[in-house]
Amino acid sequence: MNETLALPGFGKRILSHTLDLFVVFLTGLLLYASVTSTFFLKAIGGVDDSERAYRFLGDSGLFSLEEKDGIATAYAAKSYLPDSSAASGSSPAQTDRGYVLYLHDCYNFYVSFLGSDQRVSPVQSGDLLIPANEFYTADYFYTSIMGLPVPAAVTVTSEASRAGTNPYFMYALTEDSSALDLTAEPVLQSEIATKVAVGDAKTLSNLKEYFCLTTDISNSGLFVDAVNRALADPYFTSNAFSSALKVWAAYALAVAPLVILNFLVLPLVDKKGRTLGKMITGLAVVGADEAPLRGWPKVLHPPPHGRGSPRRRHLPPHDWPDGVPSRFPDRLHFRGGQQVPSVVP
């Protein structure tokens, strides 16, 4: 051979392998984005699965959806904040935002959506499987979600009785104030309503955090609980999981031919047994006698031996490389450099 051979360092080989993976998986990602995600993913139902999952969240009223050509492609939980006055240092003004819309969305989710949508899964209660429309009722929202007392135990004329342990809300009354209105959303307690009316910043902030408190560590609040309930529903999780599996299948379909081409076909047809990464870094695969390999040994070969190799300690102290098994001829990566000695001291 005309080339001067030398074993490359470990870093050179790692760079070669890294480039191989980068080229294969980046090209696969581009192929997935332009071909398999458009045609194959749709053909196997992945797009329909994600559409069903996202529509479920959108119909819950808790999420906003992004759409493309009439198909939901992404979702995000809604976020409402109290309106802020333009005047510097003034209290935020609570109009139709903040707690009002959080309360409205939570009420509609538990009472209207969970209680009527056929996609909602039944609820397991002990050994019983309760249909969603029987479990998620207005009473469930008032007592289990808002923490208001059981309606039968409420004294209509007592605001404290209508509120129970809830710090901000209480049952609404009918127009003649003679009974609880069990078809209406809870209303603010009188003291809280007075503070909201004058734009008390602390009260408005507390109301917002009652529904949605976001920190660097965790999120909490009634609205956050509702969002988590929607994301945990079996209808959403099963469709989302099925879609994710099909996305991976579409990506695998894009990557698999590239893996075969780069790691199998290319080394077999190249005289020096090179992948793209070896071509870029100037490495190649040769036999222990420094002659080019032929056939499968160019692909199925052991790691290189030599100084700095982790397998060096297992080599015989003399007469290397004569003792290399002929089934898998030893390989030498070569590049311009010092000739590899025929004996390892």
Overview of the structural elements:
The chain is mainly alpha-helical and 345 residues long. The chain has a domain at 91-211. 44% of the residues lie in helices and 8% in strands. The protein is built from eleven helices and eight strands. The strands form four sheets. It has a two-stranded antiparallel sheet. The longest helix has 36 residues, at 234-269.
Shape: elongated
The helix count comes to: 11
Topology as a string of helices (H) and strands (E): HHEEHEEHHHEEHHEEHHH
Q: Beta-sheet strand percentage? A: 5-15%
Proportion of residues in helical segments: 40-55%
Identify the quaternary structure here.
single chain
What is the mean predicted local confidence, pLDDT? Answer: 80
Strand order, largest beta sheet:
1-2
Q: Roughly how many Å apart are the termini?
A: 25 Å
Main beta-sheet annotation: 2 strands, antiparallel
Residue stretches low in confidence (pLDDT < 50, at least 5 long) are 84-92, 306-345
Radius of gyration: 34 Å
> Which structural class is indicated by helix and strand composition?
mainly alpha
The count of DSSP E runs of length 2 or more, i.e. the number of strands, is 8
At a glance:
The protein has 345 residues and is mainly alpha-helical. The protein has helices spanning 10-43, 46-59, 99-113, 132-135, 138-145, 159-163, 190-197, 201-211, 222-232, 234-269, 276-281, and strands at residues 63-68, 71-77, 123-125, 128-130, 169-170, 187-188, 213-214, 219-220.
